[in-house]
Specification:
By secondary structure, the protein is mainly alpha-helical. It contains 22 helices and five strands. A hairpin with a 5-residue loop joins strand 2 and strand 3 (216-221).
Amino acid sequence: MEPKKSQERLQQSLERVTELLEKQRRVETLVHSQHHPASSPAGRQGLVESLVHRQHLTELRQHLGRLHAADIAYILEALPHDDRLRIWEQVAASRRGDVLVEASDPLRDFLVHAMGRSDLLAVIGQLDAEDLASIAEDLPDDVLQEHVRSLTAQDRRLLQTSLSYDEGSVGQLMTSELVTVSPEMTLAEAQQQLRAQGNLPSHNDKLFVVDRHHLLQGVLPLQQILLNEPDRRVGDIMATSVVTFTPDDDATEAGKAFERYDLVSAPVTDSRGRLLGRLTVDEVMDHLREETEEDVLALAGLSGGEDIYSPVMDSARNRWVWISLNMLTAFVASRVVGLFEHTIAHIVALASLMPIVAGIGGNTGNQTATLIIRSLALGRLAPSAISRLVRKELTIGLLNGLVWGSVVGAFALVLYRETGLALVIAGAMVLEMVLAAAVGMAVPLGLQRMGRDPALGTSVLLTASTDSLGFFVFLGLATLFLLH
């Protein structure tokens, strides 16, 4: 299905669920407002309304039953808390575990806290060890420990292994579900082994060829089994040039490799080449999507854990750190303006022109910072290229400053009929755009050098810096050249 059609279908499902919820609420209101004997006309009407209510619930349950677990999670996330609970109650008990795995961190946290202990144990009891590991940090410790005691020894080992890897590593995303064959096998034997498997793991485009020590020898694409004679040996036609990962590799870097080489799955090996599991494109895509969402929020200084329907105080506290920092930097900017009160008092036009310089500088800085953050995220900024990039961005800032400084200067000349003021704002624009480009590079590169996320609060820091610099440059030039 095309992405556009898929999104349209998902929106239609959300609208249908919302419509059924609204009908359910209206009928509930009518039923609760009437208390008549069942034999009376009003009582019979209440009975009819109660039946309609059940019909809506049944229709809602059937509609949810036709949706993918990821679509149910999407719908839940788009609804306020009360409606989420109503929908969650109608999700089949056998599917709740899958929905919990597909849910975002804020939604999963909400659902976990909304369920009782016994219900939560029943839900996580549906998950295999790897899916359980992916949501383990969102589960209460006592519930997780109680469930772990009920696992088989093999599942306990799988869970402990998955939990031992760092967050954001390949090991945390890999699955142990794979099909291996020996290089001595014929294709007919490999095909027979596939049939004996019953169900193939998801996103299984290749078989992994291992020796008797479980060391990876190569991979056998499934199409090779169909395109070659059944009596040919696996070792003769397997691909030996294989993109492999280790459990400690960064998952984001692995995602770039998946994109570069158009991978569907890839083997994960230890340092000796022993096959440990496989990494699949669906897990990589989920990781990259979550990381992208966090980066978008981080640009504005927001935590990735904020739910749009979170309680007011929780959302407010989530924003306090960066608001307080922004307030401090705003005080700095106000003091910069305060240093030039005498200048502004003598030349009132400066007050109306100040926002132009600061605003254009902020936009220039954001453009540069976005370019740098994107290059860092994609791994396209080599250390040796930084000095060349600095020169390029400063040159662009200078060129744009000359062009748009002339435009603003001409505007000021027409508006105020003062040549000196026009030259000052034109010069301020040139300096501000060069400085904004420098700050736009320095903030994300500096954050990365300190081991922090380059996107974390860049927008807040950049705006504060360009505002202060813009005011200082413009008012400083005005003081030097316009006051006598």
